[in-house]
Design goal:
26S proteasome non-ATPase regulatory subunit 9; alpha+beta; about 50% helix; PDZ; six-stranded antiparallel beta sheet; single chain; PSMD9; PDZ_sf; chaperone
Length: about 220
């Protein structure tokens, strides 16, 4: 019963986080349009005057809201991680033996079914984004292979979400290990999962991808 309650609560948290991510993506999209101010670009021109090509109050409001959403996203992700740990612990907890074989067999069969069901239910919890692309260089491998600003990385090769891991370092190592090889990538874009293939490779700019990531 406790496991079911935790699972239901985790689903609610996931839905709430999806709504946060959708709003974040909308703001990122607006701020990173061609000619836009970007996520952290200057709001004054080269002479120090307020830019006249953008609505500065709106930009400031968007950036402020984005900062709030990032904090909310971080907090809700911590709660999801805690719920996942509880669900994992429940799956790994030893089952007490029964007094007779028939009851034991029944319990074991029930346990196997529950474990299989739990494993299926756990998949969406594990496949969650761990980083977002916040900068892409023109003509870079990332740009040419179809990734976009604001894409949230769910899986990059063999790298996917895992609590307590330095995932950006793992992502960089995965790119280096697969130079000139196609790497399967799964991203969330505007809340929808998209499968892509990216080939880390040398180009005129820095690195093998030509983009920067930020941890979610």
């Amino acid at each position: 019963m406790v496991g079911a309650n935790v699972k239901a609560e985790t689903m609610k948290l996931m839905e709430k986080r999806s709504a946060i991510e959708s709003e974040m993506n909308g703001i990122i999209y607006r701020l990173t349009q061609p000619g836009g101010p970007g996520l952290s670009g200057n709001l004054v021109d080269s002479e120090g005057f307020p830019r006249t090509d953008i609505d500065i109050p709106v930009v400031r409001a968007d950036r402020h809201r984005l900062a709030e959403l990032r904090n909310d996203h971080k907090e809700i992700t911590k709660k999801i991680e805690a719920s996942i740990e509880i669900l994992h612990s429940a799956r790994l907890a030893p089952k007490s033996s029964s007094r007779n074989n028939e009851t034991s067999s029944s319990l074991n069969a029930s346990s196997d079914n529950a474990a299989a069901s739990a494993a299926m239910d756990m998949d969406p919890f594990i496949n969650i984004p761990f980083a977002v692309i916040d900068e892409i260089a023109d003509a870079s491998p990332t740009a040419e292979d179809g990734l976009q600003l604001g894409d949230q990385i769910v899986k990059f090769g063999d790298v996917q979400y895992q609590a307590g891991e330095n995932l950006l370092q793992k992502l960089a190592s995965e790119a280096q290990a697969n130079q000139d090889k196609a790497v399967s990538v799964v991203v969330l874009r505007q809340g929808s999962p998209i499968n892509l293939t990216v080939t880390p490779r040398a180009w005129e700019g820095r690195g093998l991808l030509g983009c920067s990531f930020r941890v979610l």
